[in-house]
Amino acid sequence: MIVLGLTGSIGMGKSTAGKMFREAGVAVHDSDEAVHRLYAGAAAPLVEAAFPGTTVDGVVDRAALGKLVFGDPVALKKLEAIVHPLVRADADEFLARQRAAGARLAVLDIPLLFETGGRDRVDKVAVVSAPAEVQRERVLARPGMTAERFEAILAKQVPDAEKRRLADYVIDTRRDFDVTRARIGEIIADLTGEKTAASDG
């Protein structure tokens, strides 16, 4: 089974690309979705112990936690030390299920794949990318997002140009969905030798 890492900087269209892989019949493990589940499960008591007052009824209050860790590198490292191993274990279980089911391809959607040394966990990497002005417009349209916060997030991420250089595949999301869907179909066909409806255009 081939494991494809799907990544890209904030606002580049990774969630949309992940959805399109699923629509094409490829199982996708979404790290962000896994964190949501873990915050309502195994991670909650660990987070509460490290950051008292950040859970409500056994579920992590993301807003309360964000206020404590955003802009505090030490607190962020502490949180990552709790969450990252749990997300990795969740992903490993997902891959084991896909292998047992006989899947030829599975996708790990990892937002900070290059930043967290995740390249060794996957066989190939697909990076979603769009021009900087498109990225900025998308991100600043998000509720609660400010230019300052956007710049702070960007500063912690490997630059888009470097991600594209390191990638095996680049998915350009500036165009309409059909073009993106076709590109994803091409990638699936290349990795599995199987054509999809999307790759046929």
UniProtKB/TrEMBL annotation:
Instruction: Please give the PROSITE patterns that the UniProt record associates with this protein.
Output: DPCK
Q: Which Gene3D superfamilies match?
A: P-loop containing nucleotide triphosphate hydrolases (3.40.50.300)
Query: Which EC class is the enzyme in?
Result: transferase
Tell me the InterPro entries matching this sequence.
Depp_CoAkinase, P-loop_NTPase
Q: Per UniProt, where does ATP bind? A: G11, M12, G13, K14, S15, T16
Q: Where is this protein localized, as stated in its record?
A: Cytoplasm
What is its biological role? Catalyzes the phosphorylation of the 3'-hydroxyl group of dephosphocoenzyme A to form coenzyme A.
What is the recorded name of this protein?
Answer: Dephospho-CoA kinase
Q: Which organism is it from?
A: Aquamicrobium terrae
